[in-house]
Design goal:
The structure holds 3 protein chains of 3 kinds. Chain A contains 33 helices and 2 strands. By secondary structure, chain A is mostly helical.
């Protein structure tokens, strides 16, 4: 690969981020056309990705890398194979139309620039996610999609429902994000590489398989709203409709499906994998489909069917046969096209008619004919009628299960039931609002603006065009995508021919018939399901609230426990820890033996000699002790100040006696100044005659203080018994005159050798002075 | 505090202390002393003057706000370290210059400038604190 | 003499900690000064005590002839004394201001930041 390709593939993921930064500006300067201008970015990406189709078809995969953190051997590497290309094309393609659509849908919104910025950032994150080869990059992009999704769901942040939906989505998907990180790190641990494309079958046999599988499944299930994490997706519908069309049907929620597809070659195929994916996926499919029937809000219905479709994809990935994998690829594209289209249609209806309640809508086809065509195109694909992508996807699903084993039959029943329910809902969504008697709506709607119609029409048409060219479809879409998932070549066998002898055809017919039945009995089914739901009482959604509020309560209680606001207890904690830290190593763990070598243990008298101190030195020590006792016992302010001066003077004398005239000098001056300043302030402060503490507190504090003091003494003695490394001091003493031209070594260290330190220290002194001045000035202003 | 003896003697004491402080600061490189000690002594003298004459009068006598003196000190100290950049050495490498003035040789150096900076910081800060507190007492 | 100084350092620390644990702000300040002195002495003693000459090289010599005191801890302590004093002044004024605005010098009654009846965090999104 030449260098240019590496950079341009990276640019696919980076360009939308750049656009995100510029979006508010673009919006500011090209108000009505901002959507058009910004749609150029994803459109350009689509164009670039199309040029890569042929190379990928020819070579199977293209990898690219640019340096990221060379010190750790990390590259920002990308890997474009059939799977990532299909996802990337769908993301950029739907993204282009959604950007156009959003410009019209949110026309005149005060924060449209911000909205475009979030949308572009999401697009970059999503493209990066599906193109990334480096596992850490994958994780970063994965988390970036969660964060941008949070921002977009909470876009209308003045409504509590939007905030709740945003927080819920972030919390649930981030659980998965953390699991993904752990899983990726485990994979790195097991294989030693950071590139997803760099290893084959090492994981499946290793001890890491179980944990890695658990982590990846948790990540995928939370992201793709599988049971029992499904409940965040309906709440995410609080986002503006373009976001729902883009993130929460076509792309972001498919990230979990993408992840499972990506890891299929080295995690899939085991009984555990099949068992979990098929059962969870099947349950999610039915739950979502029945959930959709319960709703009357068109958007909520679509959200629930998205859950069902995601469950269907997971189920198919779990089956793992080449038919099932082909079906996943086809179904992903078909679903992205029809579901994004339907969301846009619903948005247009909401925009023009002022309501999304299916029971309040009817006969809109006359007023909104183009919208109706868009809805019909999408609906045909969702029902899975011939000449649509959905038809092929459904055929492939059934084809893989014709072995007449019990497990296959059970799966088939679930699939047919799920598909039938989805088909019924599709008919409901398309037929009920547009056909039949016209009902009055809050807004007298007319046809939606052209930018809101381009999306559904183009997406529906794209599905149709793809479906009438089965050979081309198989060659460029199905084969590379399915091969990439399975890790081995897959033959395409799509054709438009209908074989009456094939049981698949009869299964399809049964699906449609059942679907029509569901459509007919929708109202009855809805009542029954609602009654069941009411009987159930609690939902995962309510449990999330309980959990969140419990967490807040718990955090509050912990904060109250730790931040009780009583300073002396904080200090007691600090010094108790200090006492333990001092006593345990020196006393309990035997540090004192340094002081008292084992050989001399019996020879106490040798150690207990009377220290050789001159009389005046004893005098100074005594002075210090007197000063300390006086500070403790000070009955009033004056005694306290004087006592403080005494102990300070004693310290200065100690410095003077042991060869530190500079220190003695400084200490004396400081003591004088301390006394002066204390005298200035203390006259205005009250010092209680008695210590306010009760005797229990006094005993506790006294014991603690004595233990700490004894510990420090002991530690210091142990230190003194050891050797001192004097190399630095010797160096300073030896070179002070020859190279620093100063005889006072202490001063030379201060202003020359360690001048940088001193500079910092005088800055601190200056800072303290400014703080004092600020405090005093506030007092003046206050008085 | 404001006895007549104290008020009369204070300026003289302050003069002596200030001169002594500068002396201590300058000799610090070779004998006990230095910017920290010198600054503290000078600040003590200002505190004494403040007690005797009042903070307002002392501020007027100082002419410059003491905290500004401290700020100038920090800048002198930092700039003295920058001087070594002209010789191509790392930050704070000392440079020595020996001026011959007739009989005596006067050694000038960047560490000396640095020490003067330290002196000014300590002097300015502590004086500002002391004067601020004395003002508070009067008010 | 090392042992005597070590015990003395312990006494400084003990008195300092005992005062810091008292609830009266002024006592805590006194304790802080004592504690600071204790820390300075600790560094000083840990750098080994000597009755030998100060770390000043006699005129005309390139290096000291006899033993001399360890200059490094002295340089550390010198700045520590001055910074300690600056911090002490700051804390003193802070305590004074707190006393003025809260009319209290008992830390148990100074609970502006963490009031006794702090409300529960809101249960909402």
């Amino acid at each position: 690969m030449e260098l240019g390709t590496d950079a341009s593939i990276a640019l696919v993921a980076i360009a939308p981020f750049a656009a995100a930064v510029l979006a508010p500006l673009v919006h500011h300067f090209s108000r009505p056309f901002a959507g058009w201008v910004l749609a150029l970015v994803p459109a350009g990406i689509v164009w670039f990705l199309l040029t890569m189709v042929d190379p990928v078809l020819a070579t199977g995969a293209i990898s690219a890398r640019i340096g990221w953190v060379p010190a750790y051997g990390l590259d920002l590497s990308f890997y474009v194979d059939g799977l990532s290309l299909i996802f990337a094309l769908t993301i950029a393609g739907v993204g282009t139309l959604v950007t156009l659509y959003a410009g019209a849908y949110l026309k005149g919104h005060a924060h449209l620039g911000r909205f475009f910025a979030f949308l572009m950032a999401f697009m970059g994150a999503m493209l990066g996610l599906v193109l990334a080869d480096n596992m850490l990059a994958l994780f970063l992009f994965w988390e970036a999609t969660s964060v941008t999704s949070f921002l977009l769901i909470g876009f209308d942040n003045s409504r509590m429902a939007a905030r709740r939906g945003a927080i819920q989505a972030l919390a649930i998907t981030n659980i998965g994000g953390m699991a993904l990180l752990v899983g990726l790190l485990l994979v790195h641990q097991a294989t030693g590489v950071w590139e997803l494309s760099a290893f084959g079958d090492e994981i499946r046999g290793s001890a890491f398989y179980g944990p890695v599988l658990a982590c990846f499944l948790l990540a995928a299930f939370t992201k793709s709203a599988q049971l029992p994490f499904h409940f965040w997706l309906p709440n995410a519908m609080e986002a503006p409709t373009p976001v729902s069309a883009f993130l929460h049907s076509a792309t972001m929620v498919q990230a979990g499906v993408y992840l499972l597809a990506r890891v299929t070659p080295w995690l899939g195929g085991t009984p555990v994998w099949t068992g979990i994916l098929v059962s969870i996926g099947g349950a999610t499919l039915l739950w979502g489909a029945l959930g959709a029937l319960r709703q009357t809000d068109l958007k909520q219905m679509l959200a629930q069917t998205t859950i069902a479709s995601l469950g269907l994809s997971v189920l198919l990935l779990g089956l793992g046969s080449s038919y099932a994998i082909s079906a996943v690829v086809l179904y992903f594209v078909a679903h992205a096209l029809y579901k994004a289209g339907l969301f846009m249609v619903v948005g247009a209806v909401d925009h023009e008619a002022g309501t999304r309640d299916i029971t309040l809508l009817g006969g809109l086809a006359d007023r909104m004919p183009v919208t109706f065509i868009g809805a019909a195109l999408a609906g045909l694909a969702m029902v899975g009628l011939p000449l649509t992508l959905g038809f092929f996807a459904k055929e492939e699903m059934y084809l893989g299960l014709l072995h007449w084993q019990w497990s296959d039959i059970a799966t088939l029943v679930v699939l047919v039931a799920g598909n039938a329910l989805l088909a019924g809902i599709a008919m409901l969504v398309v037929v009920k609002p547009f056909l039949g008697p016209e009902l009055p709506t809050p807004k007298a709607g007319h046809e939606a603006p052209v930018t809101m119609l381009v999306g559904p029409i183009l997406l529906g048409a794209a599905g149709m065009v793809a479906a009438v060219m089965p050979d081309w479809l198989g060659q460029t879409l199905l084969q590379p995508g399915a091969s990439a998932i399975l890790g081995q070549p897959v033959e395409s066998h799509l054709s438009l021919a209908i074989h009456p002898a094939n049981p698949v055809l009869w299964l399809s017919l049964a699906t449609w018939a059942l679907g029509f039945l569901v459509y007919q009995q929708a109202a009855t089914l809805r009542t029954v399901l609602r009654r069941l739901e009411a009987r159930l009482g609690w939902t995962a959604d309510k449990m999330f609230d309980a959990l969140m509020f419990g967490l807040i309560r718990f955090a509050g209680a912990v904060t109250r426990l730790l931040h009780h606001g009583r300073l002396e207890l904080y200090l007691v904690t600090v010094f108790a820890v200090l006492a333990v830290a001092l006593i345990v190593p020196v006393g309990v763990l035997g540090g004192y033996q340094l002081l008292l070598p084992n050989a001399e243990l019996g020879n106490w008298s040798a150690w207990l000699t009377w220290p050789e101190l001159a009389l005046y030195e004893w005098g100074v020590v005594l002075l210090a002790l007197v000063g300390l006792l006086a500070v403790l016992a000070a009955p009033n302010r004056l005694v306290a100040i004087i006592a403080l001066g005494i102990q300070g003077a004693a310290v200065a004398l100690i410095f003077l006696l042991f060869g530190a005239p500079d220190l003695a000098f400084t200490q004396f001056t400081v003591e004088v100044l301390s006394v002066v300043i204390l005298a200035l302030v203390m006259t205005r402060l009250r010092l209680d005659e008695r210590d306010p503490r009760e005797w229990e507190d006094l005993a506790r504090d006294g014991t603690l203080a004595l233990v700490c003091g004894a510990g420090i003494s002991l530690l210091l003695m142990v230190v003194l018994a050891g050797d001192l490394d004097t190399r630095l001091s010797d160096f300073f003493a030896a070179t002070s005159v020859p190279i620093a031209h100063g005889a006072n070594v202490v001063n030379v260290i201060l202003v020359d050798y360690r001048g940088f330190d001193t500079l910092g220290e005088i800055a601190v002194v200056m800072g303290a002075g400014m703080a004092v001045m600020a405090l005093l000035r506030r007092r003046k202003v206050a008085s | 505090m404001n006895t007549i003896i104290f008020r009369t003697m204070a300026p003289i004491i302050v003069c002596i202390m200030l001169v002594y402080a500068v002396y201590i600061c300058l000799r610090g490189h070779n004998e006990p002393g230095g910017g920290f000690i010198g600054g503290l002594i000078a600040a003590s003298s200002i505190a004494i003057l403040g007690m005797a004459n009042g903070a307002e009068a002392t501020r007027r006598a100082l002419r410059v706000d003491p905290l500004s003196i401290a700020g100038i000190g920090v800048q002198i100290a930092a700039l003295s370290g920058l001087a070594s950049l002209f010789t191509g050495s790392p930050f704070m490498t000392s440079i020595w210059l020996y001026l011959e003035l007739g009989e005596t040789i006067v050694p000038l150096s960047t560490p000396m400038a640095f020490d003067i900076g330290v002196f000014l910081v300590v002097f300015g800060t502590i004086s500002a604190i002391a004067l601020g507190l004395e003002e508070g007492e009067a008010g | 003499m090392d042992q005597v100084l070590a015990v003395l350092v312990g006494c400084f620390m003990a008195v300092g900690i005992y005062l810091l644990l008292s609830r009266s702000v002024i006592r805590m300040l006194l304790g802080l000064v004592v504690f600071g002195n204790g820390v300075n002495l600790l560094i000083f003693t840990a750098g080994r005590l000597t009755r030998a000459a100060a770390p000043i090289i006699p005129a005309g010599l390139a290096q000291a002839e006899g033993p001399m005191a360890n200059p490094l801890p002295q340089a550390l302590i010198l700045t520590a004394i001055v910074i300690g004093f600056a911090m002490f002044s700051f804390l003193l004024v802070l305590a004074y201001r707190a006393y003025q605005s809260l009319d209290a010098d008992d830390t148990d009654t100074m609970r502006v930041a963490e009031p006794v009846d702090a409300p529960n965090p809101p249960l909402s999104y």
